[in-house]
Design brief:
Length: about 70
């Protein structure tokens, strides 16, 4: 399961996750992110809300932090 799918599951739905995020995030944004990727600026808020690790949300940005 992708990090975003897990975050959606923990939040309860795409709409609920969107409502918890800062700014004017709509369910449609979350749906779009499922097909593409979560913008990096939303990874930390999603992590804080759901506990999903940053590297699971965007491994290209937050993966292999120890290297």
């Amino acid at each position: 399961m992708s990090g975003l799918k897990l975050a959606i599951k923990k939040a309860g739905s795409q709409a609920k996750l969107a409502a918890l995020l800062p700014g004017d995030v709509k369910q449609q944004h979350v749906s779009y992110w499922l097909q593409n990727r979560v913008p990096a600026q939303y990874c930390k808020p999603i992590h804080q809300i759901t506990g999903v690790p940053l590297e699971d949300l965007r491994p290209d940005v937050f993966g292999d932090v120890a290297a």
